[in-house]
Fold each of these.
Amino acid sequence: MDIINTPQERELLSGGVLSGKVRVPGDKSISHRALLFGAIADGITTVEGMLPAEDPISTAKCLRAMGPKISPIDHDGNPVQIQGVGLDGLEEPERILDCGNSGTTMRLLMGMLVGQQNRHFVLTGDQSLRHRPMERVSRPLKIMGGKVTGRSEGNFAPLAIQGSSLHGAVIGTPVASAQVKSALLLASLTAQGPTTVIEPSHSRDHSERMLRAFGADLQVGGEMGRHIIVRPGARLKGQKVVVPGDISSAAFWLVAGALLTGSDLTIENVGLNPTRTGILEVMEKMGAKIEVLTQEEIAGEPVGTLRVRSGPLKPFSIGGEIIPRLVDEVPILTVAACFCDGESKITGASELRVKETDRLTVMSRQLKRMGANIEEHSDGLIIYGGKTLKGASLDSETDHRVAMSLGIAALMAEGNSTLLQSEAAAVSYPNFWKDLERLRH
Ligand code: S3P
């Protein structure tokens, strides 16, 4: 059976040291893609290391409603099997497809379903997802001939998709978003003629890597490798996918291990795809003691073991092309900044405002409850670090990465804290609180 979580207020203890080994759960982005691509491939796809969390479970549920058979996603680490139905084999679902809290599920499904001719699909999600912008996907899909409607002219779910015949196009995306890019790549698999997608800067490239491994005719070229060209015609073939651990989940341990005096953590099986390692580059500049103990390539993705030890950290300034490469790590970097003496600056991060919550506002609001000095700007934050933070009553405001970031901030505060809606962590890291308890001594 898939897993269901209940609301929890949690006590967060301050202090202690973190030591030992942790193996972070599977990469969320790669888990979604393995399910989606497996569903439209011919034959069986086997996925090892699938993330057993709410978001990929939402993807699996939506896909099952359209025909592909997918074995249960459980916590025992059993490989997940997907019986693909081919590029044009999805059935019209009788019911609304519920994407839960998952933007990746909704946006990638939009791209996948828009070219399923003569079938109709309705997508919705939870309260947070129904307020996240979808026009960034529906608009370029319309350029390819896609038919998507929704509230606010196709911007908000519930969305209705009438599958139709698509034509290839050259499309420049206005934001460096892997979700937008991936939706277009999926749509282009069944379009008439080639499609070129051009991003303003590099976002994560898991789709490109995995689609090619599944047999798609996809090339990356152009200036700085920012043009992705898909030629339709090739069928996808079921694969064995090995999902590395999620660097976005490892980031909580990297920051906690670097901050909490006396800590020494080994983090195993961390995905080290260069489009995701912005956090390591920033932490290196901050003077964090992080070593890459091993590194290898597994199933087309670089993977390694990291060791982090505590030590003094310097404030940082980030903006520009690095933001897409650490977009999900901004909340935990905001926490890190609170504990570095001096001013840290985050710019060019307005995308944070349209994540599961407005993460710039929510992180400032919650950390201010602990006494942090943070200035909010339209596209970022200035954090005046080095002040002692005090334990406080906190709230994840339903956001998984906020929940875990606050869990780490609370370790560093003077006095214990409480966290409302701590169960949100299960969206991407179901055992986060258990791992924290186990690693804290
Ligand atoms: C994701 C892309 C990013 C990221 C999200 C997962 C993906 O979103 O924040 O957690 O799997 O493609 P954007 O594409 O909106 O930047």
Note: The chain has 13 helices and 23 strands.
Amino acid sequence: MSEIRITPSILNADLGNLDSEIAKIAPVSDLLHLDIMDNKFVPNQTFSFDRAKEIIANSVMPIDAHLMISDPDLMAPKYAAAGAASVTVHIEAVNNLSKTINEIRINGAKVGVALKPKTQLADVLPYLPDLDLLLIMTVEPGFGGQKFMMDQVSKISQAKREIDQLNLKVLLQVDGGVSKETIQIARNAGANCFVAGNAVFKSENPNQMLQELRKLAIN
Ligand code: DX5
Ligand code: ZN
């Protein structure tokens, strides 16, 4: 069994006290998932690039930036240059994926590509060998607190098969509705990297919830 990663999403954390929210979960998290939304690609807006740069600079944890924006070709390399550990772009939004993958990498970050629920896995397969992370969305991107979409489980299994067949080390990330109830479903399908927002930050003890999620993902 490959190593697993738990990446809490701060989308629904207390954004007024972000530093203390991050400090709370840092000891039990591998990466911090930063959701960037522009109110164009998705009907919601989160952090500006300047605010994101501050978060990246101040975080004690490496940042996993998930760009839900309409101009990722332009912005993704900037997030990499700002110090994000990984930068994930949506295949539906990108204009020149090969070029953007390259530019993220030469600016020093790992490269991720995300698929919305209605997007076919086949669309990303030509690029799979060039990726560090493949993100299968298990909700429609835009908001935290939605229900895990069971109909995405077969896409996760299919992605796992493709990654194994090519003997790649691509992380298989799931994002949306991951909780104590759903994490093992995603893990059993082959996911090894789990974003969790509401399950963590709406729980009484985020730190303990993260440890429980990790235990469930390993066992
Ligand atoms: C949704 C975001 C997610 C979100 C996950 O578009 O990409 O990262 O924060 O939140 P939960 O875990 O509450 O579904
Ligand atoms: Zn996300």
Note: DSSP finds eight helices and eight strands in the chain.
Amino acid sequence: MDQFFELKQFIDECSYPVFFTGAGISTDSGIPDFRGPNGFWKKNQPIYFQDFMASEEMRNRYWEQSIQFKSNFNSYQPNFGHKAIAKIIKDKNKGHCITQNIDNLHQAGGLDNDQVTEIHGNATYAVCLDCSKKYELSDIHAQFISSKKSPICDVCSGPIKTATISFGQPMPELEMQRAQIEAESSDLFIVAGSSLVVFPAATIPLYAKEKGAKLIIINNEPTEFDRFADLVINESISDTFKQAI
Ligand code: CNA
């Protein structure tokens, strides 16, 4: 049977689809891989959470990097893959999207905030690490450019950081719990655009599989988890959804 037709059948027959997405779903929107040949981390050293917390110099370096790259997340548009996931969840009136991405494109593509669980945070805004007050990234950047001082919270004087989970930062507990619950509730679990090498995120599809969900992996290249999948499609995500919905 044609693999796209098989995917369409899985989607048509399921009642609680859960998607698990990675950087690969956003490449068609023009967002580069962090680790690829031209990736951000080839040119910049990642700043570990402990270093951010420990020194003003590192916090300043963090905000310089943020101004160079992360602010651009606001200028990207969702692609067919994001829109297809939103359409499937809306049509079923059930389901969820767990994402490792930090680009906000699932929400921009039509999902409500409550239909998306961001396990690595969101780079389109900033938060106070102590009291969780939200800040517009553009305001924080403007403040840093004029003062050259890393921003602190106007309520509690805590350090402000983009709302992403940095290397070395603990995973967000509530989001990880929600991801597990959603995975265990699903009868169809579709991984789209993740190499499944970043842990503990990569274990989430197994919660679904263990509870009896069908597991589909859509990715340009093979992954270590392909052996657990009921269907593996090694094609572009947008092209796959164009043929399957
Ligand atoms: P990854 O390790 O870069 O894997 C992405 C996978 O997607 C690779 O195996 C690619 O072959 C595949 N791929 C790329 N484009 C397509 C496409 N159009 N169709 C099908 N497959 C494709 O990314 P993961 O998400 O697995 O790694 C987790 C990291 C990457 C998370 O911490 C993310 O926050 C982080 N990240 C996020 C973004 C973003 O928010 N858009 C961008 C870059 C990195």
Note: The pocket of carba-nicotinamide-adenine-dinucleotide is lined by residues 22-24, 26-28, 31, 33-35, 100-103, 120, 193-195, 197-198, 219-221, 236-237 (CB under 6 Å).
